Amino acid sequence: MKLLIVLIAFSLLIVLIVFQEQISCFSLTKPASPGYYQDGDFVIGGIFSLRVTAGDTRSRFGFKDTIYIPEYVYVDLTKHYQHILAMVFAIEKINKDTNILFNMSLGFYLFNVDFIDMKAVESSMALLSGQTPPVPNYSCRPEKTDKLVAVIGGISTGISTRISQVLSLYNVPQISYAPFDQSLGTGVQLQSPYQFPVYTTALYQGIIQLLLYFTWVWVGLVVPDDVRGELFLRDITEEMNNHGLCVAFAEKVPEFPAKDTVDRELFMERFTLTHVIVAFGDTYSLLRFVYNIFCNTPFGNVWITTSDWDITTLPFQQNLGYTYFGGGLSFSVHMDEILGFKDFLRRVQPRKYPQDIFIQDVWSNLFECPYLDKDWIRELSQCEQNGNLSTRPLHLWDMNTSPSSYKIHAAVYAIAQALHEELSLIVEGDLLNKGVPRAPLPWKLHPFLQNGQLGRSTNEETVVNKEVSATKLDIFNYQSLQSSTKAQVKVGEFVFESHSVQHFSLNDELITWGEHHSQIWINASNVLKISIQISRGISVSLKLQHFCPMKILWELFSSPWPLVFLPFQL
Fold first, then answer.
1. Where does the UniProt annotation place the signal sequence (predicted)?
2. What is the residue range of 387's domain?
3. Residues 503, 402, 476, 459: what is their CA dihedral angle, to the nearest 10 degrees?
4. Which of 259, 347, 374, 410 has the most C-beta neighbours closer than 10 Å?
5. What is d(CA 443, CA 363) in angstroms, rounded to the nearest whole number?
6. What would the mean pLDDT of 72-98 be, rounded to a whole number?
7. 162 shares a domain with 66
8. What is the pLDDT of residues 142-182, one digit of tens each?
């Protein structure tokens, strides 16, 4: 009798434990940041950023009741949807090749976190618990969580760090497609994300060669107000000084949506008097700066930047964007074309991917479908299902593969290769027929990822692919074509092998400078001569080369004698 009572009590305890676990996993009925899931024998998580919003206004992991406050969307970054498509495309290709994963398949679980840290944490936990909203330390959907092998994300250092703080606790590999940041991985997390190779030395030298080519010796610098910005300022200033080039000013941009503390008068003065600006940062970190440019309306600047800052992606009219940034020159690491990707993009349509929860929102912006904006809530209408991405203008979409998409595509293949290596060991040991789980534990992929082209070290020399002996940078010009369409046109390239072996080539006849640029200073000769006549009859001729002309002019302006400028002798 006692034994029966004990068995009944034990059974009730088991039921209560199971019931409590079910309550923990399923009582949170309000979804938060739903993901785009496709099943497979192995699942790769993806964390992307498709919009800039006012902030995270939703639940915090279901610990208390939530009041839904709709998000206000500042900017729809429609081009970033290509990042998701690059991952889907790579997985579809891998699944068609039965040799890579031994006739097994890849799936994915994708999230949009905008640029909000809390969303990145929440989505990382959702990958581990198998549902949204996530439940910490619960595997609510083991059919999903047991298949997770790695995660790709995010787009910035801040987002990548938040993802890593969660995934590192479970030793899940993470590949970041953000611009390389040596501060990433120096925190308290157990494992830092894998990062792609960095080519800062080549970039610095390429910028220097471009400045020297046009004899642009008085240059302003714009960087985000973070560690990457500080390092860039330090290194590029040193290189400029070594070549007799001068830093007119350094503008540090607070990350959006931080409070704008810009001195408007000083801002206008800087960008009106300094024609050449080197901007280092990415689309999001410089968003506040773009707003300031449009509010203060300086004209005639030539912008030198990198592909991380897409100056064509602006929350304003296309022609207005070209007015401010047309003629800009951008450096991009040379990338081979991803075979078949453009054809894949042309075939993408909402009806082809009905499970894609992001495509309708993107489509409404790409094809300007009408939607209601009631009480800050976007209610999408039914968009044209037969639209073709190749017809969209440059500020909304680019059929060329972006650097981020290229990284994401490569990251999928790096994970697939690591899986192949791990599965090869299992197949050789005939362990698949002995009941060994078919999905390797995520941490087992680390040795294979570390031996590949990706690495965690913050030392540039140990991160780069050692098979690459030279770095090639393409130089693009943002211009308006005769058809009034906007395009990024390749106008040159820079190949860096060492400080003593560099190859710079530029076809300046292909460059269009935009409608507000002055040809007088753009087409200056290698040596600029300025003649200044002082009213007392003293004539001064200055040969400005390899020193800062503005400093001398400032001293002359400070002179008690009135100055009269004679015409330039070019």
1. 1-20
2. 33-197+337-463
3. -40
4. 410
5. 38
6. 93
7. yes
8. 667 788 999 999 899 889 999 999 999 899 999 999 988 87
